[in-house]
Specification:
Elements lengths: L6 E7 L8 E7 L6 E10 L2 H8 L14 E9 L11 E4 L9 H4 L25 E3 L4 E2 L11 E5 L3 E4 L7 H4 L5 H12 L7 E5 L3 H12 L4 E6 L9 H4 L2 E5 L8 H7 L6 E4 L4 H10 L6 E4 L13 H7 L2 E4 L7 H13 L9 E6 L3 H9 L5 E5 L1
Parallel strand pairs: 10-11, 10-13, 11-12, 13-14, 14-15, 16-17
Antiparallel strand pairs: 1-2, 2-6, 3-4, 3-8, 3-17, 4-5, 5-9, 6-7
Helix pairs in contact: 4-5
The structure holds cyclohexylformamide and zinc ion (ZN).
Length: 380
């Protein structure tokens, strides 16, 4: 057995911000207390990997192992781990769920206060790294997951055990690790979309389409999708998601009036799924006075700000909120979403546009950056 010993394996290391990842041999230390070492089976690429890969300044840092949407098998566990054992199938999540703090115990929040979420290059509990390169130099972590490696070490607060009873396919369950859960959760939990309502989604990547999927299941009457590249969809693809497309030639071109007319006075729910402050402002402007709710999902550049007119906030009665991981609690909600998928209620298949070998990870980056993929699942 490899338990208790360092493991040498392949990882795609980000050596230089924005440059192709380098496939190299790394050493993965054994898990410490409250940690598990995981053999990654599948990992997919999320836009946040690309966003942080490009960052030259903090929270950008190199060398680092990116990747946070994945599924794997527990290889070994550290001290004081009772909830997981070798061989368990687990889904890592960037958002912790300690299950003990007052926030984890409250049904109103998914923001753990025992291990508060932050974009840190270290393990969340002791602030050190489990990765070294062959010269013995430290390699940093990413979002407490670092799945672009055959093996990784993850804190148990960031791991959800799943049951593989009903023949769950790894290349589907993997999607519940970040993007699809985030979108569906935002529609179900954060917004609580009701039957017969109108939803406007800004940005039709995987997150936007997952919001649409959540809204469809809830019985939304109209789902309007706004994107600058309508050509990225096949005929029928948007129909599957029940999305009615509004194409934009530029991001500043949203005609408030058009949305206002289409929705007869504003949408019940607006979702910003891009990460642009100006688009967040537009989304807020497009939701209905009195009860409209705008949910921000997009990851904007660090320190960027949005503008709201105070008078408008006071008079409009609208709600503006952000949502991390769709407001879901990883440990209880991922199994719930998986069951909905197994019951053929929730769609996951149509999000997987590409499957590649892990070795071809840089191609996965190209596909996502060029807007050619939704989810590209890589097999280790
Ligand atoms: C994001 C959410 C905001 C911080 C970075 C990660 N989630 C997943 O992609
Ligand atoms: Zn993500």
């Amino acid at each position: 057995s490899t338990a208790g010993k360092p493991i040498r394996c392949k990882a795609a290391v980000c050596r230089v911000a924005g440059a192709p990842l380098v496939m190299e041999e790394v050493t993965v230390a054994p898990p410490q207390a409250h940690e598990a070492r995981i053999r990654i089976v599948c990992t997919s690429l999320c836009q946040s990997d690309v966003t942080f890969w490009k960052l030259k300044d903090f929270p950008g840092i190199t060398p680092r192992i990116l990747g946070h949407e994945a599924i794997g098998i527990v290889e070994s566990v550290g001290a004081e781990v009772t909830e997981l054992t070798e061989g368990d199938t687990v889904i890592p999540v960037f958002l912790p769920d300690c299950g003990e703090c007052s926030d984890c115990l409250s049904k109103k929040s998914n923001l753990c206060s025992k291990l508060p979420f932050k974009v840190s290059p270290w393990m969340p509990r002791d602030g050190t790294s489990r990765f070294t390169d062959l010269d013995g130099n430290t390699i940093h972590h990413f979002l407490s997951v670092s799945s672009f490696s055959e093996y990784t070490v993850v804190d148990i607060a960031h791991l959800t055990k799943i049951d593989l009873d009903g023949d769950v396919q790894m290349n589907r369950a993997c999607l519940l690790s970040c993007g699809i859960s985030t979108g569906v959760g935002a529609a179900w939990r954060t917004a609580d979309v009701e039957e017969g309502t109108t939803v406007v989604i800004f940005g039709l990547g995987s997150i936007g389409l997952a919001v649409a999927e959540g809204a469809r299941i809830r019985g939304a009457a109209r789902i309007i999708g706004i994107d600058m590249k309508p050509e990225k969809f096949d005929v029928g693809q948007l129909e599957d998601f029940r999305v009615q497309m509004v194409a934009l030639s530029c991001l500043e071109c949203i005609e408030l009036q058009v949305i206002n007319e289409m929705t007869e006075g504003g949408a019940d729910y607006c979702f910003e799924c891009v990460g642009l402050p100006s688009l967040m402002e537009e989304a807020y402007a497009c939701c209905r006075k009195g009860w409209g709710k705008t949910i921000v999902l997009g990851v904007a550049r660090p320190m960027s700000e949005m503008k709201l007119e105070c008078f408008e906030v006071l008079h409009s009665g609208k709600i503006l909120t952000g949502s991390l991981f769709g407001g879901l609690k990883p440990k209880s909600d991922i199994p719930m979403l998986l069951k909905r998928y197994m019951d053929r209620d929730l769609e996951l298949d149509k999000f997987v546009t590409h499957e590649l070998d892990f070795k071809e990870i840089n191609t996965a980056f190209d596909l996502l950056i060029e807007g050619k993929s939704l989810r590209c699942v890589m097999w280790m």
